[in-house]
Amino acid sequence: MHVPNPSKLCLIRGDGGRTIRPILDQICNKWTLLVVATLDQRTVRFTDLQAQIPGISQRMLTLTLRNLERDGLVARTVHAEVPPRVEYNLTELGRSLIAPALALAGWASEHGADIETSRAAYASRVRA
C-alpha cells in the first residue's frame, strides 16, 4: 500500500486549495491537455490545431489558447501576411507540463479497467 508523504499532501490541501485550484482547474479541463499535447515539439497554425483535436469547436479552441497564453504556457505569433498567419507553440513553462501530464495519463491508462469495474459495481448497487 502506498503511503503518501504528508508534506506533499499539504501542497494539495494546504490552504484549502485556494492557491492551486484555479491552476489545476485550467490545466485539467477537457481541452487543455489535448492542446498542450498537440503543440508538443512543434509550432501549429490555428486551423491545423483545430483539425488535430477532434470535437473541439472554434470557440473552445480560441478560449483554451487564450487561457494558455495568459498563463504563459503557449506563445502566439502573428505573421504580417495577407491573410494573417497565426501560429502557436509551447513556451518552456508549457513544455514543463508534458511530463506530469504523461504521468497522469499513464496512471489513468494503468487503472482504467479497475475504475470501470468499480463504476459498474457502483451502478449495480445504486440501481438495486
SSE layout:
Elements: H1 6-13, H2 21-27, H3 32-39, E1 44-45, H4 46-52, H5 58-70, E2 74-79, E3 85-90, H6 92-95, H7 98-127
Antiparallel strand pairs: 1-3, 2-3
Word description of this protein:
This protein is mostly helical and 128 residues long. It has seven helices and three strands; from the N terminus they run αααβααββαα. The chain has helices spanning 6-13, 21-27, 32-39, 46-52, 58-70, 92-95, 98-127, and strands at residues 44-45, 74-79, 85-90. The protein has a three-stranded antiparallel beta sheet with strand order 1-3-2. The radius of gyration is 19 Å and the shape is globular. The mean pLDDT is 89.
Helix content: 55-70%
Morphology: globular
List the secondary-structure elements in sequence, H or E.
Answer: HHHEHHEEHH
Structural class: mainly alpha
User: Alpha-carbon distance between the termini?
Assistant: 32 Å
Q: How much β-strand is present in the residues?
A: 5-15%
Rg calculated over all Cα atoms: 19 Å
How much is the average pLDDT? 89
Strand order of the largest sheet: 1-3-2
Tally of DSSP β-strands: 3
List the total number of helices.
7
**Segments where pLDDT lies below 50 for 5+ residues?**
none
**Biggest sheet architecture:** 3 strands, antiparallel
